[in-house]
Amino acid sequence: MIQLTNIDFGYSKKRLLFENLTLELTCGHIYGLLGKNGAGKTTLLKLISGLRFISSGSALVLTENPALRKPKMLQELSFLPEMLYTPALKLKEFVKAYSPFYPNFDHQQFQELLRTFEILNLDEKIDRLSFGQKKKVMIAFSLACNTKILIMDEPTNALDIPSKAIFRKIMASVATENRIVIISTHQVRDLHSLIDAIIILDSGKIILNESAETITKKLAFEVIEDVENDTTVLYEEDNVRGKLVVHENIHQKETKLDIELLFNAVILNKEKVQNIFNPKK
Q1: Nearest CA to 132 among 84, 100, 179?
Q2: In the predicted structure, residue 47 carries a pLDDT above the cut 90
Q3: What architecture is domain 2-203?
Q4: What is the DSSP string of 67-111?
Q5: Is 236 in contact with 227 (CB distance < 8 Å)?
Q6: Which among 46, 37, 17, 10 is positioned nearest to 267, based on CA atoms?
Q7: Hey, where are the domains in the chain?
Q8: Could you read off the pLDDT of 157-176 as tens digits, one per residue?
Q9: Confidence grade of residue 31 (pLDDT, cut at 50, 70, 90)
Q10: Burial class, 255, CB count within 10 angstroms (exposed 0-12 / middle 13-18 / buried 19+)
Q11: pLDDT at position 231, please?
Q12: pLDDT tens digit string along 122-159?
């Protein structure tokens, strides 16, 4: 449903952020988009949404060129940015103004989500809410749009601990086989139980794009006492229980994915990790 093929993009002609980048995303997954600051995460989301335009290559979102921003595509794509613009409207006025753009918008679902987030006054103006409360409103609105593509950029920023737990519960309930969800985040521990496929960007390149199931088949995440002479170790860090390590899963152990450890391992050992997932012939 989302296909980027050999795309180039840069904020200046002299320096490209993405060069010959290819990415395909399919329904039925919650993708975690990870990367250091400046890696290109938000830009990639904007290219998919048609808010930025590729220089060359091919981009298709729901069979449409996203740069054309046709209503047929936009009504099936909901994008929650990290930085929110909230008009000086009451909640009920906001919904009345913007929900008609989304044919599958569910007003009852929206109100139920607000109640779950403990936002009860629909006569309150959005711009007067705290940033955390604004985030809850916009999360509820994005989900109630019931679009085929749901994109969220740092959705858990500004949420308190109880609200993050509510967010995880809600997201688990809305993930369907007919929807693509992309969540860009630095708060990987907030979303650990949700993400079932991981994309890691580094310096404008996709250095990992795999399902959680494939990752745990190829890599093991363990606590061990000593890593001396273990050539399979890709990353290690000290812990009160010993050493947290990521290493090649040559013994086919069943271990639990740790996204934070995975990210560090991939960033520090790009070539080794890529060779594990795509062995050179």
Answers
A1: 84
A2: yes
A3: 3-Layer(aba) Sandwich (3.40)
A4: GG--HHHHTTEEEE-SSPP--S-BHHHHHHHHGGG-TT--HHHHH
A5: yes
A6: 37
A7: 2-203, 211-277
A8: 889 999 999 999 999 888 88
A9: very high
A10: middle
A11: 76
A12: 999 999 999 999 999 999 999 999 999 999 999 998 89
**What's the rounded Cα separation, in Å, for the pair 133 and 115?**
12
**What is the reported pLDDT for 193?**
82
Phi, psi of 232 (to 5 degrees): -85, -10
Place of tokens 């740092």: 154
Buried b (16+ CB within 10 A) or exposed e, 117-141: bebeeeeeebeebeeebbbbbbbbb
- Helix 107-116 to helix 91-98 angle (10° resolution) is 150
How many Å apart are CA 269 and CA 234, to the nearest integer? 6
CB 95 within 8 A of CB 107: yes
- pTM above the 0.70 mark? yes
